[in-house]
Write a structure and sequence with these properties.
The protein is built from 8 helices and 4 strands. It has a 4-stranded antiparallel beta sheet with strand order 2-3-1-4, with helices on both faces. Bound molecules: inosine-5'-diphosphate and magnesium ion (MG). The site of inosine-5'-diphosphate has 9 residues, from loops.
Length: 145
């Protein structure tokens, strides 16, 4: 799965009516959408997804934010997808993100930063499985994906 990554359009992206703009940006950068849905995370689901951050001071605020409205998880495909997508979204803190990146263009602050991107191939595989069942992925894209 080294050509795949998981994006999540976060609740601020949906609230600000930026779904279309952000997806255009992603598609124009050459990513293919393999699967997509809208979900409202429960606190437990958000905690599970961000378990690696459970001891960080911003964890509780992060869970409140991620459960504050619907999210749109998206499975994306491109060569070197994880690294290419992290470049496209920019640094966690939009103030530090490069010009032209999605976070620089659309994010308000380090917490409400519009979009998630997996940070390694290993995590991409886990994160895709967190939102999409094998059955769903096969039904959508066939056995080769
Ligand atoms: P990433 O999304 O760029 O991979 P992570 O360090 O994995 O960044 O953090 C996960 C999410 O937690 C961030 O996207 C952001 O929403 C939030 N976050 C990270 N660092 C901070 C912080 O210092 N203050 C508030 N929220 C933060
Ligand atoms: Mg991260």
């Amino acid at each position: 799965m080294s050509n795949k990554t998981l994006a999540i359009l976060k609740p601020d992206c949906i609230r600000k009516n930026l779904i279309g703009k952000v997806i255009s940006h992603i598609q124009e950068a050459g990513f293919k959408i393999l699967a997509m849905k809208m979900v409202k995370l429960t606190p437990d689901a958000a905690k599970g997804f961000y378990e690696v951050h459970k001891d960080r001071p911003f964890f509780n605020d992060l869970i409140t934010y991620m459960t504050s409205g619907p999210c749109v998880p998206i499975v994306l495909e491109k060569d070197n997808a994880v690294e290419e997508f992290r470049k496209l979204i920019g640094a966690t803190d939009p103030a530090k993100a490069e010009e032209g990146t999605i976070r620089k263009l659309y994010a308000d602050n380090i917490q409400e930063n519009i979009i998630h991107g997996s940070d390694s191939n290993e995590n991409a595989i886990k994160e895709i499985a967190y939102f999409f069942s094998r059955k769903e992925l096969i039904e959508i894209n066939g056995w080769n994906n």
